[in-house]
Amino acid sequence: MNRREALKRMAVLAGGTLSATTITAVMNGCRAGEADRALRTLSAHQNKLIIVLTELIMPETDTPGAKTANVNQFVDKMLTDWNYEEEREQFLSELNAIDPLSRKKFGSLFLDLDRGQQKEILQQKEKEARQSKDKGAYKPFFDMLKEYTVVGYFTSEVGAGEVMGWTAVPGKYEGNLDQPPGKR
Amino acid sequence: MADTNKTNTYDAIVVGSGISGGWAAKELTENGLKTLMLERGRNVEHGDYPTEHQPPWDAEFRGRGKRKLFREKYHRQRKSGVLNEYNYHFFVNDKKHPYVTDEDDFVLWVRGYQTGGRSLTWGRQCYRWSDLDFEANKRDGFGVDWPIRYEDIKSWYSYVEEFAGISGQEEGIPHLPDGVFLPPMEMNVVEQHAKKQIEQAFPRRHMTIGRTAVLTQPHKGRGACHYCGPCSRGCSVGAYFSTQSSTLPAARATGNLTLRANSVVHSVIYDEKTGKASGVRVIDRETKETTEFFADVIFLCASAIGSTQILLNSKNKRFPNGLANSSGVLGHYLMDHHFRVGAVGDMPGFEDKYTFGDRPNGIYVPRFRNLDARTNHPDFLRGYGYQGAAYRPGWKRGLRMDGFGADFKEKLLDPGPWKMYLGAFGEVLPRYENKVELDEEQTDEWGMPLVKTQGDIGENEQAMRKDMAEAAAEMLETAGAKNVRTYDAGYDLGQCIHEMGTARMGRDPESSVLNGYNQAHDVPNLFVTDGACMTSSACQNPSITYMALTARAVDYAVEELKKGNI
């Protein structure tokens, strides 16, 4: 049973609709462990940048975004344990260059820009990645960030479980459906 | 000493607990023989599957793999393409289990050292051979003639299929005989469409649902498949055939089985007076202590290369080049199936069609080349089959898509456009130069000489690969695919994990190691029933044939024991 199902059933059991606050508490309760995990590589400021950048890639729409899925925690995990040192240093130095770039382009630090400006900064990083002639040992900053964001989102409890309806035991195979199965 | 012999004496010893070993143990114990099954790795009981049904968010790297660990300690095993973050504990650590191979003639040797061996992680596809395969060597002269024909093994296929539980569709194709099948899995809507188009355009080609050792209904106390997908993590309801789910419980139920894990077999003990094998020498994996076990009959089921290593290491005055090797062919004629070649294309017109569940199976296109004069291909001998599937790619395609933001995200919440691929599996000819030897200088931590191996495919396979890609593209286009791309991702011998042939069966003791009952020509109470026994490779996945040959060999051995012949 996934959380939405659980909530629906709780509502039925309680004989009415649960308040929004209760729902939020239950949802957050399920995620508390991950949200509280201490950062191991990212500084507090770098973490704030990553939260905004990953949310730009996978924003909240009518489904939760990267922030709700704690993608920043996954980025920190990958930087710490998956990346080789040089790869991590390259990524972090590019991350640190986001503020100077924002100041140069828009006269403010990245976190102080409006969403449109932030998007432009990220678009510039994507362009750089595409134009990068240097086929170095490691992926360009944008590509690594996007990979960690997409993977982190779709493998998270929020992305895989709640949004995509991951289930351990489908119980059957159906090869000719007219509707996407159990989507949203 | 006499006491030790008594406690260490059995009627039969089986070396290895994988698909072949499990079958040997089941058949021997059910025939009333007190049987010792030796497994070199750790013990894994049915249900010891720590990652089964694990959600991605609970995996350390969310399924992306333990990159540093894999690069450092699983650098060869990971080349198989099977190893991943969820199943790597069922594969050997390459640092601990090294072997020597040639850079240019690289052989990949993928192993799983634990109870059940590779039966826990195998591909589960099961196809009978026919006389097209058993007569192949005789027909074109590559390799010696098989000492058996389809008629010799036919009833044994039925016997093992009935027990193992193979789901599949009867098709009446002479060269891919139907088996004893459970209900077939379902082809999805696009595969059904492709099947129709291809069979219409090519009257002698077929497409069928994969025949697989996965249950589509409860069977002999095991549960049906629940379509969770990644079988290689282990299945505690036993929906796929493994030693743990199937043969081991049957062997244990007889009360005649002793399973001894952590038992690295060093060599077979040969008694020069009787001319028979009297037992095996075992090194404890943990304490490194040596113990000898004795029995009337010995079955080597340690995998093709593993059994060959043991025989090569069992040298004595009578057999200076390895036990049962008077022919000198032991270790030679290593085969596999060459693959990683085929085609993929987009399948438009089904945008409103979806699937549910993760079917651990695909479709199969049986061999259609060189069946007879009409289907002869001018450039190569033998043939190949295709495995394939139609599918809608998931969110991972996002890693190759440009852009980001709300539109990008919304696209990835839906499955991608339908695609279909056909991946070929081709026959490898037996070549003397493709071989397994012992390294004379290096030993592993148990004192076993390292396996040294080299091998490659030849001109025949290279010519076949060209056709494997082109014919796949042609069929996909016929099926309505657009933007069809062929691929050849390169191949190393062994990469298909279908190693076979290094102690081949044959009619002539001068050119083969085993006779038509998997019995060593030179040592009558010694049997080898894993992939080592294969005289040719055909192009079908081999495990069901190992199962049938093993059951048949045990039946023969038991009769011979009764008659006092061995």
Task: Describe the protein in words.
The complex is a heterodimer of chains A (184) and B (566). Chain A has helices at 3-13, 20-35, 44-57, 71-82, 85-96, 98-106, 115-131, 141-154, 157-163, and one strand at residues 174-177. With 184 residues, chain A is mainly alpha-helical. Chain A folds into two domains: 1-33, no CATH class; 37-163, no CATH class. In chain A, helix 3 (44-57) packs across helix 4 (71-82) and helix 4 crosses helix 8. In chain B, helix 2 packs parallel to helix 8. In chain B, strands 6, 12, 13, 15, 16, 17 and 20 form a seven-stranded antiparallel beta sheet that branches. Chain B is α/β, with parallel strands linked by helices and 566 residues long. Chain B contains twelve helices and 21 strands. The model of chain B has no long low-confidence stretch (mean pLDDT 97). In chain B, strand 8 and strand 9 form a beta hairpin. The radius of gyration of chain B is 23 Å and the shape is globular. Chain B has a single domain, classed as FAD/NAD(P)-binding domain. Chain B starts with a helix and ends with a helix. The chains are: A mainly alpha (184), B alpha/beta (566). At the A-B interface, helix 4, helix 7, helix 8, helix 9 and strand 1 of A face helix 7, strand 14 and helix 10 of B. Strand 1 (174-177) of chain A pairs antiparallel with strand 14 of chain B, so a sheet runs across the interface.
Summarize the model shown.
The complex is a heterodimer of chains A (184) and B (566). Chain A is an all-alpha fold and 184 residues long. Helices cover 61% and strands 2% of the residues of chain A.
